[in-house]
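[worker-b] picked up task from shared queue
[worker-b] task type: protein-ligand structure
[worker-b] ligand name resolved to flavin mononucleotide; SMILES cross-checked against name lookup, match
[worker-b] sequence length check passed
[worker-b] input payload:
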Amino acid sequence: MTIQPNGHTASREERNKANLAPFANPAVPGYPTFLTAQPQPVGSLLPAEKFPQNANPPKAFEPITIRGVTFPHRLWVSPMCQYSSDNGHATDHHFVHIGAMAQRGWQGITVEATAYVPEGRITPSDAGIWDDSHIAPLKRQVDFVHAHKGTIGIQLAHAGRKASTLEPWVQVQHEEAGWTGGHVTDDEHGGWWKDVAAASDLSYDNEKYPHPKESSLEYIESLKVAFRAAIERCKKIGFDFIEIHGAHGYYLHNFVDPVSNVRTDQYGGNLENRLRLPLEMAKIARENWDKPLFYRLSASDWLDDVVGPEKGHPGEKEEWSWWGIEQSTILTQKLADIGVDLIDVSSGGNDARQQIKVGPSYQVPFAKHIKEHVKNIIVGAVGIITDPAQANDIIENGEADVVYFARQVLRDIDFPLQAAETLGAAVSPIVQFERAWSRMVVKRDHLKAEAHHEARSEVEGEEGKEGKRQEEKKKN
Ligand SMILES: Cc1cc2nc3c(=O)[nH]c(=O)nc-3n(C[C@H](O)[C@H](O)[C@H](O)COP(=O)(O)O)c2cc1C
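[worker-b] inference finished, payload out:
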């Protein structure tokens, strides 16, 4: 909307008489449609001079600045595959999905696992960034988030030995209808089952999953070229940060983990060799991207009860029997030394025998361990964090610096603003929604002390059960 002056300029007398006010609804400069400009980032603390309760805010709402990018608070969106892309291209689904998060005050919005080569998708409907044609629909999302003064990045991914599989609901619907066969997408439905690449030719599940090929050195080199090209596209799109996907049984996890890497060349055989590829990729990213760089890892295969200790064969050439917190801490230190800014601590997904002890905050001890042992990196916690006090306590207690949410975003899009209200802070809604938040945006002389400092809250038992069901189905 461009407001055209009507050619009539009122005199001062006329102005006074007619009660004229010389103000317009401000537009976001340069945005392709009219969009009301927001006075400050959505979900950010309102000025403490006006809102005394913000003088000593809950840590979850303290901004954090990384390489010059200020994240207005620490409740961030974990990447979530939507299996809704058109040959890798984002669609209107993604625009609404991400746009709603920006309007509702989420920060650190991480766009879902996005493949930098087509065979790096989990399913044919995954997001992609292997071609310049992927730029425009991603840029539309980023521009919208930035128009709301929000922060948005992308998870760059290669699915490794879990590629060319069915979208989760396609699998479930057909299993419910009686299908008992595999989960591999065939050629007629956009699959690439003959070209599934991993560290070694070991399947995640011989009965259901693809049988991958061991990646040749030429293939690994071609991935580095594609990864660099994807980073160039991220610059054109304007993302605030990049997260490298090194978790959940996908390509880089396949390399670091002795259960999926039995190579005998420089990329396998001992810890140093297994860590080589993720470190090379992180270095490529660091050299080509000067904004915040994050890495998501799985801190454990959860095989303690099945296989025994993580370091199973001390003194032998391959000392480690599976991937766990000790090696994750070593990897994190090396990533930090390369210049990776944040480690996003997840777990599981690389071995079907995993025994995950799912429950509220179940991965936080891994984040805490890494935070205690690696000093030059910011730590993110994720996994069944669903309650404002629970999230705030994790940060206040120094177990992590930021908290990621996935399913809670899908269940409760207004969580950040609700959390502010619960914790006794006043944050900015978008101006269009202000009237719905008058109960939060009130001046208070002191914090709701009981909300701010209460111990870790109880999270419903159902939540843990739901987590377990999800884990059993598929770990993304
Ligand atoms: C629908 C859905 C899609 C997901 N896709 C991704 C993904 O693209 N990349 C990733 O690293 N994790 C993915 N995950 C895992 C989440 O990011 C998160 O780590 C996990 O759900 C635990 O957090 P929560 O308990 O808050 O849901 C996905 C989870 C869900 C529910």
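[worker-b] attaching auto-annotations
[worker-b] The first helix runs from residue 12 to 17.
[worker-b] releasing lock
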